[in-house]
Write a structure and sequence with these properties.
This protein is α/β, with parallel strands linked by helices. Helix content is 30%, strand content 16%. It starts with 14 loop residues before the first strand and ends with a helix.
Amino acid sequence: MVLPDFLQPRPEAPVEVRAPTAAALPLVCDSPHSGTAYPADFGHVVPLSLLRRGEDTHIHTLWQEAPAHGATLIAATFPRTYIDPNRSEFDIDPAMLAGDWPGPLTPGEKTRQGLGLVWACINKDGVATPLYDRRLTVAEVQGRIANYWRPYHAALQQAIDTSVQRFGGVWHLNLHSMPSDVYRRLGRTNAPPLADFVLGDRDGTTCAPEFIHLIGDTLRGFGYSVACNEPYKGVELIGRIGQPQRGRHSLQIEIRRPVYMDEDTREPNAGFAPLQQHLDRLLGVVAGYVRAQRTA
């Protein structure tokens, strides 16, 4: 299979880091799931068109003005279906492996759904399709961790640590998009309509309440519907970074995909440019808030 240029593997650059182009602020944005460079050793057996449903396609582009507001912007180039940076290094289903893992594993609820560190299936219209017709070797999973997962975490941690060391704290935005059929995937038949944005702070534990309120109120002012922690609360990254009692505030932002793209073709729709402009304005609001917090 010949892949389009944007899907070509990039093993030399598993993560992109864009430094601030304006006066630096303790503001870090990361997009762990928008990568579209599919590694040559993936070995999946599903069509690429189906596999791409796992992408948070275009998210890093929607937020591309973050550096102009003083933020560091980090994005994975590899797809989450290959290995997911927003999962624990040990969140592996041992049933996927062809051998014994050399140490303890801690598979969680997402892993039981086939969506752990290494995805076992892809979902469309409530149907889960296996990604592989084989078990993965321990060596290839270890290679994915070493060559993709760890470099991403190292780059993000460096940006967080740099902000803390320089400014005494950090505000972190963990950027995602969500499929329109998420409630169906979760088996929830009496769920409310899916909001345009879902903000997750793990039930008030990863950032100051005023930070999530600021972002939610700003988005509502643009005309979007906003929910908090429903149905996404945030996972590995904000759970590890968010320590508001230490001045480290971390918030997950999910955007409903049809707001900006066609879920089948992955192409931007008419909402893409207006959304990008609104996110630029939101970043300006966040940057102003962060500056005010530094001088308070």
